[in-house]
Q: What sequence folds into this?
């Protein structure tokens, strides 16, 4: 039967993070691996109230097929959220997605021909790498520092390799937790315009800032950087701020790209769940979404501080990392260690993280790893890090 499967799928590897999920279900396991929102942050009551208050008329219409672009009401709601992020868009510029992951896939499908070059920062989000690989693209990774992608040689690299797409998670990145400063955002967009490249900006985490808001999205610069309107796409998600199970995200893009994405989505899942759009629109419009955000920010800030403290306490100078200003992740390294080997020992000791190789298009350094503080309280985080440090000494370099 496998003879019928296209070679690109036959040879593809699954998402390393999804593959790890089965271990997180082992009783007693402390998982610092997944970027799953904390169960205590799921506003089940708020959602229950919204569902209970939907009239029969509203429910009946929400149970019907909907337009591919998304419902009028939800797009208006998303335009308001986008406005608060300085994105200044009209509801007609929005395509509602079944999760932002779908946006990455749609963009890959509508832009990339086999052999096209895609630039990504190193490290980057593995499911984006998969989408680009499955589209037949050649991926080129760019180095980064504590402020995200280094832009000093971007223009020259673009001239040399002619990428069609530059994919970035510029705000509290996954896995790096890093945030690209405004100056680098502007320089990246200018380079994209000069070299006929499109920036795909993936932004699921910007609402989760701890003390200081991140700079405005790259997409918000499309009117201030000359000729940039056709060179950026923005995607975001409600997965990290409301509930991943709603599978709701959105895309902002120039009209021809957005239209192509609509056509690609029509042949994919027709439209995002109309029922979930109605629930989310009401939940956001009645103010509960905004009221809940400070609680999320406080919880994740506490988790991030606890994780950084535990790393200092249990691993001392063996571990290097930068403290994130938001999001769900700490990106760290232990010099001279293969973190995939470490993970095997760690699972036996009932603790987990994600080895860093998954986040590179061309891995050459095995010493990195990603830790998430999103779904644990400070005690759980400390216990997890303690378990990891206990087995660290048994790992061969
Ligand atoms: C950078 C990034 N992009 C996209 C996604 C996918 O999110 P969604 O649940 O909206 O599909 C994730 C989820 O972890 C992510 O970290």
A:
């Amino acid at each position: 039967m496998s003879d019928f499967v296209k070679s690109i799928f036959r040879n593809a590897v699954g998402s390393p993070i999804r593959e790890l999920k089965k271990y997180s279900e082992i009783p007693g396991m402390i998982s610092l691996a997944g970027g799953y929102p904390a169960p205590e942050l799921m506003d089940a009551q708020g959602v229950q109230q919204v569902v209970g208050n939907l009239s029969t008329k509203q429910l009946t219409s929400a149970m019907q097929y909907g337009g591919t672009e998304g419902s009028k009401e939800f797009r208006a709601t998303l335009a308001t959220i986008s406005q608060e992020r300085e994105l200044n868009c009209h509801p007609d510029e929005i395509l509602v997605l079944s999760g932002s992951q779908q946006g990455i896939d749609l963009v890959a499908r509508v832009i990339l021909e086999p052999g096209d070059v895609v630039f990504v920062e190193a490290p980057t989000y593995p499911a984006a790498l998969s989408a680009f690989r499955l589209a037949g693209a050649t991926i080129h990774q760019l180095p980064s520092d504590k402020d995200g992608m280094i832009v000093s040689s971007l223009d020259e690299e673009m001239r040399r390799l002619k990428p069609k797409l530059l994919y970035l998670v510029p705000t509290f990145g996954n896995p790096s937790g890093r945030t690209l400063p405004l100056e680098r955002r502007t320089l990246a967009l200018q380079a994209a315009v000069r070299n006929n490249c499109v920036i795909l900006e993936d932004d699921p985490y910007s609402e989760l800032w701890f003390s200081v808001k991140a700079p405005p999205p790259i997409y918000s610069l499309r009117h201030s950087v000359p000729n940039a309107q056709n060179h950026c796409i923005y995607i975001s998600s409600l997965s990290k701020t409301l509930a991943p199970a709603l599978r709701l995200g959105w895309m902002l893009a120039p009209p021809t790209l957005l239209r192509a994405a609509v056509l690609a989505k029509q042949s994919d899942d027709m439209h995002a769940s109309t029922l979930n759009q109605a629930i989310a629109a009401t939940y956001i419009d009645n103010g509960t979404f905004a009221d809940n955000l400070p609680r999320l920010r406080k919880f994740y800030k506490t988790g991030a501080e606890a994780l950084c403290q535990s790393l200092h306490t249990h691993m001392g100078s063996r571990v290097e990392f930068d403290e994130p200003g938001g999001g769900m992740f700490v990106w760290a390294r232990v010099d001279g260690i293969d973190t995939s080997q470490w993970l095997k020992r760690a699972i036996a000791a009932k603790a987990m993280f994600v080895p860093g190789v998954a986040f590179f298009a061309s891995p050459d350094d095995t010493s990195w790893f990603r830790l998430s503080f999103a779904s644990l309280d400070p005690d759980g985080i400390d216990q997890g890090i303690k378990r990891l440090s206990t087995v660290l000494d048994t790992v061969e370099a």
User: Anything to note?
Assistant: The two ends are 42 Å apart (CA to CA). DSSP finds 14 helices and 15 strands in the chain. Residues 35, 99-101, 125, 169, 174, 202, 204, 237, 239, 244, 249 surround pyridoxal-5'-phosphate (CB under 6 Å).
